[in-house]
UniProtKB/TrEMBL annotation:
SMART domains: LysM. Keywords: Signal. This is LysM peptidoglycan-binding domain-containing protein. It comes from the Bacteria. InterPro entries: Bact_Kbp, LysM, LysM_dom_sf. CDD domains: LysM.
Amino acid sequence: MKRVFSIGCMLLAGALLTCGTVRAASEEPTIYVIQKGDTLWGISDRFLKDPFYWPNLWAKNPAIGNPHFIYPGQRVRVYADRIEIEPRTPSERRISEEPVDERTFLVSGSDGFLMEKAVKPSGRVITTNQNRQIVGEDDVVYIDIGMVHGAKEGDRYSIYKKLDAVSHPVSNIILGEKVIPLGTLEITEVEEKVSKAIVTKSYQEIGPGSFLLPYRDKRRQISLVAADRDLAGYIVETQSGKTAIGEGDIAFIDLGKNQGVEPGYFLYILRDVVPDQQYADISVDKLPPEVVGALVVVQTGANTSTGLVVKSIDTIYRGDRVEMKKSR
């Protein structure tokens, strides 16, 4: 597949007028007026034939201070190589009613993350009611967090389970341990060093040894955010542990807050193409990479992040590269 960053190919039909007229690149731009319900996502899809281009559209338009705030009545200039949104006048601001909605992604809360060395659990489930090995919603558990730790009745924690350590597919450096959420609990009785709690939600089976972190509502909407820098990294692991994943699956990457990554960042998933020298008359060192999909960052750690695969053109594997380009 042609690389999606090659905007020229995608824009061959991108200057399509609403009345069906196509203009040459050297002519005046096509003008489109934003309607109620339009989004940057939809505009990118309509004119560039690639909805995932919209972070670049946003970043190239200073008229859009916030990606959610495009308004009915704003004018869009469609060129052969770009889309621009005209600044709105004060009168247009008065006439406009509400900002149109932007594309978001719902995160269920069962995505998990890579637990890096700097992250320490708040505590653990030390036993359960009647010493059961597996408990679920509405069951009673006991945790090693008490008054000496500042615990009080009503405190809530998220419950996790550690899986295997994850190494980088290129450097083999250990990046962290893969963890998955099991559920949530709420403290009902507090002692000096321990507490009694009830499981308020369970995604998977919970047992002694499960570790705790401060509660955070994991089910949330993630809005796309435009790039403010170039980023390049790798898919280092998948949530499922499967070698091959696709759209809707969770992947972990080797980029985090220290590299400037934020939730909502959109990255293309790339795979290098290895040249076959037997058919080339010249030495070929590198070929353009193949774009196999895209992911949106939903959670960030210090040096790793969790990503939701939102588009897969081909099978995606651990070790595939990820890349984001700052809009120029």
